[in-house]
Amino acid sequence: MPTTEHWSVDIYLTEEEDRTHAQAQLHTRDATDLRGTGLAKRSPEDVNVPEVGAELAAARALFELAHHLLRAATVDVEQLTGKPARLHS
User: Quick one: which of 9, 24, 29, 82 has the most CB atoms within 10 Å?
Assistant: First the structure.
């Protein structure tokens, strides 16, 4: 019988002048604490559109979080098998 788990990711965005910082935090059933961070910086000649900075910073934070999650899975596989693992996205 299939089982379902619920994992969630919270994204926190902070804007300071021409920079937007993002932090993505993964929440799992076993309280895994993985985070990714991202930064977007507006160029002085660009129009100020806060949504674009938020999108870029969030995407970069999620990309880093995905990298951390893939690395955690690799470590888990290596510990279970006792052999080096190469997992790909």
Answer: 24
One-letter amino acid for residue 70 of the chain: L
User: Which residue type, as a one-letter code, is found at position 59?
Assistant: A
Determine the Cα–Cα distance for residues 80 and 89; give it in Å rounded to an integer.
20
| Residue recorded with tokens 């693992």 | 85
Q: What's this model's pTM, rounded to 2 decimal places?
A: 0.88
What does CATH list as the number for 8-81? Answer: 3.30.160.240
d(Cα 10, Cα 2) in Å, to the nearest integer? 26
pLDDT tens digit sequence for 9-67: 999 999 999 999 999 999 998 877 899 999 999 988 988 888 999 999 999 999 999 99
